[in-house]
Amino acid sequence: MKLINYWTVLFAGIVITGCHQTKPVEKMDSAIPVKVISAEGLQETEPLETSGLLSSEQQSNLSFKTSGIIDRILVKEGDQVHAGQLLAVLNMTEVNAQRSQAEESFAKAQRDARRTANLYKDSVSTKEQLENTATALTIAKKQLDIARFNAAQSSITANTNGVVLKKAANEGEQVSGGVVVLTISSTANKDWVIKCGVTDKDRARINGGERAEISFEAIHQTLSGKVRSMAQGSDSGSGLFQLEIAINPSQAKLIAGLFAKVKIFPSVKASLLSVPLDALVEGKNDSAFVFVAVGQKALKKSVRVAYLKGDKAYISTGMTTTDRVIREGSAYLTDGSVIKIIN
C-alpha cells in the first residue's frame, strides 16, 4: 500500500512540472544613447605659430681687413659702445713698413716720370719710355692707396650705438683678414627683429606686412610687430622658409638672444569647421578623432585640429558641414557602435 502511494505522488509531481511553462527572457536594448550637433562652418583667420631668437637688424660681425697680430682689444663682452668708438687695433709694425715702402716706390716713380719727360723733350728718350714711366707712376700710386687703406683698416671701430655681444679673439693672437673678432648689436628700439622659420604651406599664406604677436617668457611681455621680409627659398639645413618679424618700438627692455614665440595673422582667411571641444577623442598634437552619426551607427573620423579657442575646436580637414557630430556619449563608443539619438 505504501509503495503505491509513493509512485502516485511522484507521477503527480512530474505532471505538474511538465505543465509549468518557462517565462521567456526579455531582450535588452544595446543601442548607446548619444546627443549630436552639426559642425559649424566659418571663415577664420588661423594664426601661424612659430618661434625664433631676438636679434638686432643692425647686428654686425667686425673684423680686420688685413692679417696680423692683435695689439689691443679695448672692450669686453657686454660693454656699451657708440658709433665711431675705437674697439681693437693690430700691431702696426708690418703695416707701417708696407705703407712706407709704397710711399718710397711712389716717390721714385714720380722722379723717374719727371726725368723721362725732360729727356723726351730733348729727344733723348723715346715715346715708349715716356709712356712706360707714366704707367709705372700710376701703378705706384695705386699701390700706395692700397697700403694706406690697409693701414686704416688695421683697427676696428663701432659702426653703431650698441653692445658687444661676443669677443672671439684676444690680444696677442694672430688673426687672418676677415675673421670675426667682435660682434656688435644695436640696442635701438627700432632695430629689434625676430628671425624664425615656417613651412612651405604656411609660407604660401603670407604676403608680407601681416600683423604678429611676439611673447617672451623670460620677461613675461607680449609685443606687437609685423612681417618685414620673407625668404624666396627654403633654408638648406632646416627646409624652412626664413621670416624676419620687426617689433614695433616699445619701452620694453629687450636683450639680444631672447627666445620668442610668434603668432602671425595672415590676411587670407581659411575655411574651418568648429565643434565643441568635448566632441574630440584621442587627441595628440594637431590630430584627433570624432564620432559622427551615420544612420543608427557611429563612424569614427580622423580630423586635423587647426587650433583651440575657448570651448571650441577648429577643424581644418577631415569633416564637412553635413556631418552630425556626436557630442555626448562618445566616450562609450567604438567605430560601428549602434547608437540611439536622444534630444
**Widest beta sheet: strand line-up:** 2-17-21-20-19-18
CATH class term of the domain at 33-44 and 269-341:
Mainly Beta
Shape call = elongated
Q: Report the mean per-residue pLDDT as an integer.
A: 84
> N-to-C SSE series?
HEEEEEEEHHEEEEEHEEEEEEEEEEE
How many β strands by DSSP? 23
Report the major sheet. Answer: 6 strands, antiparallel
CATH domain fold name of the domain at 33-44 and 269-341:
conserved putative lor/sdh protein from methanococcus maripaludis s2 fold
Please tell me the CATH architecture of the domain at 33-44 and 269-341 by its name. Beta Barrel
Strand content: 35-45%
Helix segment count?
4
Written account of the structure:
By secondary structure, this protein is of the alpha+beta class. Among the domains are: 33-44 and 269-341, conserved putative lor/sdh protein from methanococcus maripaludis s2 fold (Beta Barrel); 49-58 and 191-265, Beta Barrel (Elongation Factor Tu (Ef-tu), domain 3), CATH 2.40.30; 93-153, Helix hairpin bin (Helix Hairpins, Orthogonal Bundle). 22% of the residues lie in helices and 41% in strands. Helix 2 (93-121) runs antiparallel to helix 3.
